[in-house]
Amino acid sequence: MQPLPEAAQGSNEQWAALVLRRALTDVNLHGVDIPAGSLVHVLLASANRDPRQYPDPDTFDISRPTIERHMAFGGGPHFCPGTALSRLLADLSFRSWYPHVHRLSLDPADPPTLRLTQGSFGFARLPFIIGD
Ligand code: HEM
């Protein structure tokens, strides 16, 4: 079993969505020509499901050996400075609700709905039934 911070990376951070960049020069990425000056939507959530990095990418698997290669906090000079704080908060939050997970179940009569706003993936509603 992995320590909790990695588990949090594998689940929580996979929801981060996109960053914007302006191409400074003509560039070709994976066969796609991107002219200089283009605005590029970099889909981090898509990168985090790249089958070349993560075999079977849509399977929830927090024990992946490649899990720490994710792009959820970006990369390079703009790498998120809130990473350590976010991991700490995720760790505390997982530790507080994990002991109660066995009491929670999804309500078949009221299924979860996804938030559809561009750039922000996640659940708009995630109702649980709390058992004994
Ligand atoms: C799970 C939580 C978080 C995720 C997934 C996340 C994700 C990201 C990503 C992907 C970027 C890169 C943006 C880019 O390259 O254009 C970024 C930048 C940034 N993040 Fe976060 N972030 C999180 C939490 C936080 C927190 C808690 C703070 C502050 C307390 C924070 C402050 C910032 C700032 C100031 C930048 C801009 C850095 C720059 O442009 O140089 N983030 N974040």
From TrEMBL:
Keywords: Heme, Iron, Metal-binding, Monooxygenase, Oxidoreductase. GO terms for molecular function: heme binding; iron ion binding; monooxygenase activity; oxidoreductase activity, acting on paired donors, with incorporation or reduction of molecular oxygen. Gene3D superfamilies: Cytochrome P450 (1.10.630.10). Pfam families: p450. PANTHER family: P450, PUTATIVE (EUROFUNG)-RELATED (PTHR46696:SF6). Belongs to the cytochrome P450 family. This is Cytochrome P450. It comes from Arsenicicoccus cauae.
